[in-house]
């Protein structure tokens, strides 16, 4: 039986969802909604599904197993709560919420629901990323030493002509929150929890309320040190992850999605002879992309016995590090994991105590 999908928001990212869903034999778009009815009807004409006037109407009409939130970030919390209160599961685009306070509201709604809340983290699901995650856990690459996590993208001034872009109220932050979150999430999924961060952020050029560049030094629970840079000012765009282990360096360079050829593997002179052949065998042909995560999400949904990947706990860990980067940047001090609680201004907004340039 196909998973029946409802889609909220029919902009560009919804088309990515629909294209990936169309490649799957066990998924079907059955309902769509958008504040722009003309756009939602055009979307339905292309990808299928009935057109509902609102999310509430979609939930009332029924016939949906899971709702994909492809709407602007500022809408995710209310929409997620509505879907969960109807007993259905949610798959939300990133960022899933604009603050830890908002996300904790979603988690409380999840606890009271028969459904689950999952976040799109498509870069976790490529074959070689999963291989590297396993090798990190079993330490066959040796001890993790240091890593690089860079999201160097370019967005011109005209990109921010869309009213909700570049604002704390609608996007929750700049490239740290809305763009670098993809690489940050992938890095944490491979290397594990973080412990402390020291960071800077600045608004250098773009007509925005938020930052347009940030940099952070993160110490992981393992003791490894990671440099993170997030930029919307970089004409040669790239997404770059580098992992330096005792026995090997593993690099990933791509832009918005990777394949097996996007990776590079370099062994140390002292590395076990089996590492190169093990790496060669990791070329599964499965790159990053929504379809890989959709497949695992729908399998979990069908089983009904475990939370959907990526779980709300996974997503919160990533969101907490992002909040800590802002807190460290604006208050000019190191921030440790767990420090941003309900007493912190950065719990309710990534802007926290206020950007220095405000």
UniProtKB/TrEMBL annotation:
Keywords from UniProt, A to Z, are: NAD
Q: Where is the GFO/IDH/MocA-like oxidoreductase domain?
A: 132-239
Write down the InterPro entries for this protein, in alphabetical order: Gfo/Idh/MocA-like_OxRdtase_N, Gfo/Idh/MocA_Oxidoreductase, GFO_IDH_MocA-like_dom, NAD(P)-bd_dom_sf
- SUPFAM superfamilies to which the protein is assigned, alphabetical: Glyceraldehyde-3-phosphate dehydrogenase-like, C-terminal domain, NAD(P)-binding Rossmann-fold domains
Q: Does the keyword NAD apply?
A: yes
Does the keyword field hold Oxidoreductase? Answer: no
Domain (Gfo/Idh/MocA-like oxidoreductase N-terminal) spans 4-111
Stated name of the protein: Oxidoreductase
* Species for this entry: Microbacterium nanhaiense
């Amino acid at each position: 039986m196909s998973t029946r999908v409802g889609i909220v928001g029919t902009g560009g990212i919804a088309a990515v969802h629909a294209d990936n869903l169309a490649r799957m034999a066990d998924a079907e778009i059955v309902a769509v909604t958008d504040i722009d009815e003309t756009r939602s009807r055009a979307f339905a004409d292309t990808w299928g599904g009935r057109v509902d006037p609102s999310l509430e109407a979609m939930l009332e009409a029924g016939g949906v197993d899971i709702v994909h939130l492809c709407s602007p970030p500022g809408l995710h919390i209310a929409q997620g709560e509505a879907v969960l209160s109807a007993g259905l599961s949610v798959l939300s685009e990133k960022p899933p919420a604009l603050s830890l306070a908002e996300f904790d509201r979603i988690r409380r709604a999840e606890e009271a629901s028969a459904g689950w809340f999952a976040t799109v983290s498509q870069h976790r699901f490529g074959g070689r990323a999963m291989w590297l995650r396993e090798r990190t856990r079993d330490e066959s690459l040796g001890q993790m030493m240091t890593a690089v996590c860079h999201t160097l993208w370019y967005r011109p001034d005209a990109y921010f002509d869309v009213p909700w872009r570049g604002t704390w109220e609608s996007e929750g932050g700049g490239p740290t929150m809305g763009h670098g979150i993809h690489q940050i999430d992938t890095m944490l999924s491979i290397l594990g929890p973080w412990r402390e961060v020291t960071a800077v952020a600045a608004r250098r050029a773009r007509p925005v309320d938020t930052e347009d560049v940030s940099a952070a030094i993160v110490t992981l629970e393992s003791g490894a040190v990671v440099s993170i840079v997030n930029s919307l000012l970089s004409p040669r765009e790239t997404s770059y992850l580098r992992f330096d282990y005792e026995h090997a360096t593993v690099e990933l360079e791509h832009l918005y999605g990777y394949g097996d050829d996007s990776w590079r593997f370099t062994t140390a002179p002292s590395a076990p002879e089996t590492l190169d052949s093990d790496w060669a065998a990791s070329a599964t042909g499965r790159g990053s992309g929504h379809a890989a995560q959709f497949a695992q999400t729908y399998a979990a949904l069908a089983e009904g016995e475990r939370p959907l990947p990526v779980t709300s706990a996974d997503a919160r860990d990533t969101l907490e590090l992002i909040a800590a980067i802002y807190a460290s940047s604006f208050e000019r001090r190191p921030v440790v994991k767990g420090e941003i609680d309900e007493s912190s201004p950065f719990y309710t907004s990534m802007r926290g105590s206020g950007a220095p340039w405000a």
